Request: fold
Amino acid sequence: MDYLAELRLQGFHQADDHRDDEGRVQFDCDLYRGTADELTIQVYAVDQEALEREVMPILEAVLPQIDEMVARLGEIDADLAQIILYRGRLGLHFWSRGVNNEFTGICTQSGDRWVFQGYGDIFANS
Reply:
């Protein structure tokens, strides 16, 4: 899927006014809203300018790789529901199809690729 084109079409909105300990706030973008492919992108930046300058280049590089990254996880009975970029880590958040369960695959950057590190809490201190 062309997540980057859809992101450019929809754009980000500030999700709330709560700042983390580094002064960042949450920005969200809902891709393919109202369809079976709906997906939220959740990122953190101190303001809209920092979002464009610091976060968008990372998203521009990683979003074209998302489908491949999900495929490399193997057969999982879940749908990708959210992409989270937080403190240099990428979270692929899934909702299970058959059981009421959700889980996040965490990836870190290695050169121009993102490497799966395991499942866990993207917001936990690394």
About this structure: The chain has one domain: 3-119. Residues 48-62 form the longest helix (15 residues). The mean pLDDT is 92. The chain is about 25% helix and 40% strand.
